[in-house]
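for the record, two folds in this file. i put them one after another cuz i was lazy. first one right below, seq on top, structure tokens after. the second one comes after a little note so u can tell where it starts
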Amino acid sequence: MRRSMLSLAALPAGALLLAGCAQPAESGDEAVALGAGPVHERLSIVTGGTAGVYYPIGGALSTIIGDNVDGQTGSVEATGASVENIRLLGSGEGHLGIVQGDAADQAAQGSADFEGDPVQTYSLAVLYPNVFHAVTLASIAQAKGFECFGDVIGNRYSVGDVGSGNEATTNQVFESLEIALTEIEIDQLGYAETASALQNNQLDAGSWVVGEGHAGITELGTTDDISIIPLCDDERSAVVNGYGGYTEHVIEGGTYPGVDEDVETIAVWNALVVSGEFNEQQAYDITSAMFENIHQVLNVYAPGEEYLVPETIVNSPVPVHPGAVRFYEEQGVEIPEDLLP
């Protein structure tokens, strides 16, 4: 969907069941099929790698479901994260998935990794934002004149590891800004390799699409003077109003060593999503149980405290599941019309 989202500042695979996993019809019968699937007693929660944030959040959710939703258990599964998770939901091999919002949006549009093979998912909750950091060394920023993100044209830039969400987000930013990849000397490096390449003068800048305060950027900032390249006003507008469901975001000065001024950028929200057939009452029960026991999620991801509230659902990159809509309405949260299923 192409739309502008609210800014952050506006906010106050165990046993896999294959039965009943058909997607909602794409005809006028969709409203009848949506939320009408069977109740899954054993839920596969698809997440990401064991070293990332998705996996422990999935583990906390599994515990919450097992302890608070009668007759249901959850099994957390390590996966390749967003793109794989959406495909697992679409095939019925996963039941709940944690995904980056831009991947969910691309899946619904049938673009990027989902070209010709769209998958529509529905949100139960929006979790926390991954913030787009265009990181360089202060000496490089000064020598290259990096004042806006577009200044990286003609330079060496790491978009992230091959097939990563980091790469997908960075490529979407380039596309929204109408910057061709041929205009940049592209590298596909993980975070640690990007930091090392900057230090060894093998790179001019690179992306970290991560939770704010990321340890890798902090570590780099303790050994070298760093700079984060801002997205200037017209650039943020182009990205937020393009595809991907991005929001504007400010990295406050002092978040990282040596970066004393606020940095204007964008963020992509992570969401807990399900397929359209996911049972409506089950969706309501799980959403309710999660927020009633949100402290268990915060125990594994404390930086999410600011965001793990019902009001964050207005930043959903895809429509909200009807079972979850009922929960949010009970909480007095008004769901934007374009997010209603």
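(here's the note) second protein begins now
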Amino acid sequence: MWKRLPFRLRGYLITMTGVLLLSPDALLVKGTDVSPVTFMFWRGLLLGIVLLMIALARYGHRLPEAIRACGPAAWWCPLAFAASGWAFVIANRATSAGNVLVMMNLAPLVAGLIGLVFFRQRLRRQTWVVIAICVGGASLMAAGEVGQGSLLGLGVAMFVPLSIAINTTVASAQKGERRRGIDTTVILPLGCLAMLLPAALFGGMMLPPAEDVPLLAIMALFLPAAYFLIQTGARYLPGAEVSLVMLLETLLGSLLVWWWVGEVPTRLALIGGGMIVAAMSISSLRDLRRQRRKAAEGAPDVGRIQQQTVEDEVPVGKVGEVAEASRR
């Protein structure tokens, strides 16, 4: 069943599942009273341990080889991952959630520009339209809180979309010897190490208060799976589209706060959320319709050919020959 799904749809489903697990993140950040450095130390430590265990279980003694296969991503992605975590936590503590969310909403736009300029990743016109609608919708959701908080927090929040965009775009650009992207989930533990080392240097190696321990335990339970799935999504989708799916965190996080804290969304928030759901749903339906039309006309699923190449270890050159033959 899974192998019959279109290649892009698999990427969207994987990334959406990760975003679903990531949606309580802002609630966890706001719900703890520990200092940012202590929070980041335990965040990096707990996430790093779980993600390293996953990587070792999957690769074993071949883990160093898998890390080297990531190429430039082995440097850029961990640093960007750590920077996004630090910026997200500090900004949420220093300014309003609305300011942080508005800045985060720029991630797909920034990722699209980085991919176009540095990696020649061209997005379809439909994708740019969806990005524009979703950015606008997510900004409406956060409009009620914009302007509150410090300028320092607003400045730090600007690093969140930049870091997310660098991570997703660089990860999606590493193709290696196969047409599907390189598995960059193996370098997430390095990102956690880059996250906790500064925290340790600034005195973050302290035991958290007892009341914060359950929240940290929940974080260690959900967030590793969330980041693992989101990073896996970059193997199937361009970085801009991974960042676009991550906008669902704005919607899901708001609904979670509504349910947990009882904060009723504003009318603008409901309109913005509706814009996000409508834009992404219509785009997905158009993709499925386009795929079915191509299949009915006899065109092969290039994404499936690429996947079969990975599974059967067919040389990449053969994929090019098959794709060229199909075009003829």
